[in-house]
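Work Package 4 report. The design task specified in the project plan requires that, given a folded chain encoded as structure tokens, an amino acid be chosen for each position. We show below one input record used in the internal validation round.
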């Protein structure tokens, strides 16, 4: 039931013709908070642990036209007095449309709360005493890294919001703390009361003596001058870019989409479509990172609990970078800013949060006809939509690529710094690799789950698994050379819990129920998985029970707006079995209907010395390529790069 609160809309909310999927503005964020305050629903102690667009139903979005009035509504997660409520607030009407209590859930930890936890740790006498044993007299020289606890049933953590803090020494404020791990020391802190629940001091290692700074001055001082033989690479487009950006609607060549920065999921793309000869053909209705997990395989007490769900437990959009031309992005760039609401209610704009540009991508297609002595060649290029987020010690770059031939690729670029543990001669290195004197890095994984609300030529789709098999020798295969691709329709949710298989060149095809190509086959897109893994942790471990999405590389479910997050909506601490395991438990049919495809992929990071003190970028991702979606090569109409034909 909507509750009317204001005789007039809140100031700043008077944009009736804005698109339903336009990004949130600062004025709208302030307006939503003001609506809640005037309603009496929240007091001065309210904390905000989710603040995003309340996305309208697909039909409403599809029906919107420029000039149409828009009811701008926002979904807000409020934590106050130990209770969690989710509000849907209209800033257009000045009303609270819903106020739903969510008992027995733990909200994520906010940025302001994290800094308060760090401060409480440094002020604790027990922590100071543990530092003094290690020869460190000043706690202000110590870097505190709070980590989510998971669900390990420690008595003193039950019923509390808890962070476990590990420590690193910074002799100077700009030093790389990960070069000086203070291992054997862990502090458990209640996020709400800032009470130190326990200081665990289980061992003491020598503090490393080799600094691991990586800035220009430090590298020059430690290793000599910078290279001088790298010549500039200039990327220019003297006639301008080939894309247009109107509000957050992006158009490039025949592609179109809406680009959003969500506070939890980070970069989200809506209504991805392709203009095929004047017919706008939908492909994906909504594409997002549904969750990610970083499980550690080390058994040392300071490491074994680690399995951060970085999206749901912290909020990727709250940690996005302000991107810089020539550093994060190169070329003729367009940017989109984003607005975040932090847990303390502060509203902040991150400039240049999303980078958009074009890249040359080599040869698109080529053939030399030696009979006619002619060559035809076309250059490929791609549109890049990207954002970068700093999550503690790691940087994650999320890149969507769109190509002239209808291909879509998604790539995660991982860099930043390894989290480290102390090492001494004779230490067991079964679960870690030494990366510097007295420093090792534990083995871990980075597993990502992307949610694809598919709409290949409409909302009636199915998923077909394709495996290539060798035929047995016999009359139909006299030389033992035959092999064929076999197709299997995945008819229900449980049947669609699948893993990759490089031995059979396995891929999955998302095909339309309503449209066929000129050859009489369903129009489709292939999901091409990378060589990847699932989580190594045991099925009944806290890691696996909380990140069930990491058990399989493919999941398929009927599309439901409330089934949005791979580990559930509230994954902090107590969420065992939530997310994809629960969503798909009913084994609903997934044939010729509105489906969501969930693809889980990632890397196992067995660290190298070359990954330290700062890590060269590593890559993970997947591809989506048209399979009978077009009647022929859609790049035939790309003009030659030079006058006439290339020869």
């Amino acid at each position: 039931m909507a509750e009317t609160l204001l005789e007039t809309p809140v100031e700043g909310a008077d944009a009736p013709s804005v698109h339903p999927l336009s990004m949130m503005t600062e004025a709208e964020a302030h307006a939503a908070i003001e609506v809640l305050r005037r309603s009496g629903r929240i007091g001065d102690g309210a904390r905000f642990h989710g603040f995003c667009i309340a996305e309208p139903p697909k039909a409403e979005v599809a029906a919107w036209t420029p000039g149409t009035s828009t009811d701008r509504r926002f979904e807000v997660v409020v934590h106050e007095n130990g209770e969690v409520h989710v509000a849907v607030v209209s800033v257009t009407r000045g009303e609270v449309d819903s106020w739903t209590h969510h008992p027995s859930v733990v909200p994520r930890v906010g940025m302001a709360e994290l800094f308060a936890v760090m401060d409480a740790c440094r002020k604790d006498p027990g922590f100071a005493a543990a530092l003094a044993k290690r020869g460190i007299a000043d706690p202000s020289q110590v870097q505190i890294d709070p980590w989510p606890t998971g669900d390990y049933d420690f008595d003193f953590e039950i019923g509390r919001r808890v962070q476990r803090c590990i420590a690193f020494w910074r002799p100077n404020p700009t030093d790389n703390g990960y070069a000086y791990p203070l291992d054997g020391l862990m502090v458990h802190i209640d996020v709400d009361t800032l009470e130190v629940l326990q200081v665990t001091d289980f061992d003491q290692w020598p503090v490393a003596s080799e600094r691991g700074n990586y800035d220009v001055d430090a590298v020059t001082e430690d290793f000599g001058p910078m290279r001088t033989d790298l010549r500039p690479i200039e990327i220019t487009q003297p006639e301008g870019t080939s894309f247009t950006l109107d509000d957050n609607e992006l158009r490039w060549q025949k592609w179109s989409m809406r680009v959003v920065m969500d506070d939890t999921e980070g970069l989200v793309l809506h209504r991805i479509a392709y203009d095929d000869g004047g017919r706008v053909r939908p492909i994906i209705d909504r594409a997002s990172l549904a969750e990610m997990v970083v499980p550690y395989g080390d058994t040392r007490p300071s490491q074994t609990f680690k399995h951060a769900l970085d999206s749901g437990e912290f909020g990727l959009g709250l940690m996005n970078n302000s991107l810089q031309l020539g550093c994060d992005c190169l070329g003729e760039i367009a940017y989109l800013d984003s607005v975040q609401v932090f847990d303390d209610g502060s509203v902040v704009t991150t400039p240049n949060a999303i980078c958009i540009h074009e890249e040359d991508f080599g040869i698109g297609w080529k053939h030399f006809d030696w009979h006619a002595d002619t060559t035809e060649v076309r250059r490929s290029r791609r549109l890049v939509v990207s954002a970068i987020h700093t999550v503690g010690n790691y940087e994650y770059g999320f890149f969507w690529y769109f190509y002239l031939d209808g291909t879509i690729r998604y790539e995660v670029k991982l860099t930043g710094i390894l989290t480290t543990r102390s090492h001494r001669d004779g230490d067991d290195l079964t679960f870690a690799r030494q990366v510097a004197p007295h420093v090792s890095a534990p083995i871990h994984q980075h597993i990502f789950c992307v949610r694809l609300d598919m709409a290949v030529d409409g909302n009636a789709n199915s998923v077909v698994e394709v495996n290539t098999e060798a035929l047995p020798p016999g009359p139909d295969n006299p030389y033992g050379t035959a092999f064929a691709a076999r197709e299997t329709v995945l008819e229900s949710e449980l049947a669609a819990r699948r893993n990759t298989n490089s031995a059979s060149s396995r891929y999955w095809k998302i095909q339309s129920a309503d449209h066929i190509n000129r050859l009489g086959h369903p129009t489709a897109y292939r999901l091409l998985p990378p060589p990847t893994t699932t989580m190594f942790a045991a099925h009944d471990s806290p890691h696996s029970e909380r990140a069930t999405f990491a058990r399989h590389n493919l999941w398929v479910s009927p599309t439901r707006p409330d089934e949005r997050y791979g580990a559930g909506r509230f994954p902090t601490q107590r969420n065992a079995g939530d997310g994809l395991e629960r969503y798909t438990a009913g084994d609903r049919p997934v044939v010729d209907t509105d489906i969501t495809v969930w693809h889980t992929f990632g890397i196992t990071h067995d660290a190298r010395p070359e990954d330290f003190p700062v890590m060269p970028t590593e890559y993970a991702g997947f591809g989506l390529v048209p399979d009978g979606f077009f009647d022929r090569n859609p790049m035939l109409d790309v003009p030659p790069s030079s006058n006439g034909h290339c020869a």
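The helical segments are 26-39, 58-63, 111-123, 125-133, 216-223, 310-314, 542-546, 580-583. Validation will be extended to a larger panel in the next phase.
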